[in-house]
Design brief:
The chain has 93 residues and is an alpha+beta fold. The chain has one domain: 2-Layer Sandwich (Alpha-Beta Plaits). It has a four-stranded antiparallel beta sheet with strand order 2-3-1-4. Helix 1 runs antiparallel to helix 3. The radius of gyration is 13 Å and the shape is globular. The N and C termini lie close together (7 Å).
Length: 93
């Protein structure tokens, strides 16, 4: 299993609305993209504004997700609302 974590700082304009929209869009991808097991988006209280924690079957599943049209549509919306992003993937036992 691969854990995929992304954290963002959001633009000040419409920050809470954008956080809610991002959460809804990314969590809705579970069950729509093969190999994606779980996704949860939450507001951070330290460091970044928003965090995605997600789980995938394999590295290949993460790559499939990254190129999937549903993810690309969500990603476009996310990129319009952020000023900074950091991410990491790791294989879990």
């Amino acid at each position: 299993m691969v854990r995929h974590i992304v954290m963002w700082n959001l633009k000040e304009e419409n920050k809470e609305e954008n956080a809610a929209t991002i959460k809804k869009a990314l969590e809705a991808l579970v069950g729509q993209i093969e190999g994606m097991r779980f996704a949860q988006v939450g507001r951070c209280y330290q460091g970044y504004d928003l965090c995605l924690y997600s789980e995938f079957d394999s590295r290949e599943a993460v790559e499939f997700y990254r190129e999937h049209p549903l993810h690309k549509a969500a990603q476009k919306m996310v990129h319009g609302a952020i000023i900074e992003r950091v991410s990491s993937d790791f294989e879990a036992d």
